[in-house]
Design a protein that fits this description.
By secondary structure, the protein is an alpha/beta fold. Helix content is 23%, strand content 29%.
Length: 235
Amino acid sequence: MRLHVLGCHGPYPCAGGTTSGYLVESGETRLLMDCGSGVLGRLMQKCDPASLSAVLLTHLHFDHAADLLVMRYYLEIAGKELPLYLPGEDQSKLRSVLEESAYRASPYPEALRIGGLTVTAFPVRHPVPCRALRITDGEKTLVFTGDTNTCPGLAQFAADADVLLADAAFLESEWTEQKPHLSAAGAARLALEAKAKRLLLTHLPVRHEPSSLEQEARALFPDACAVQAGEVIAL
């Protein structure tokens, strides 16, 4: 299983950058997790978007879903309709637009088998309905927190992950329990509680250097690093 980082900033990109978007590959199975601003162009450098097995949306904020609106044109021209999984309780206008286009939108089931991968979803704490995602090929496990602050049960959901891809949108000095995201230190505490093998920091704020987030996380969890767009991680 391989994780391609297509975009990692939030809630807006750096100059020439992209927001949330990750391609998970295992054999012939390709899953796109989130599709934020600028992600489609990066995805097309990796594969034909019409060859995706499914799209997994953590939630419908624009920095995680904006490029689905333009990817629909590509899919319509290609004559392809993609399965799209998202939080079932979200009834926003964006969901209505997506359901009218080149996607077969469905709420996350209890467990989802796509090719050689099993996907489970877990509700997390964010201003809109959002899901953390756990993806396994039976040997390796990737857990993506989506956007979340501290959340009961999340460490158990992420237990023993080979890679924990975690929201780290704040430094601890600016974080509070009322924020919509974790801090880098909070992501490290989550990784420790979950006994994750590796921590990857994402949803990186443009106002901070990634190295400052890494330094904060590594003080608690030494095997932590901030992801970079274009990076490929082998699990």
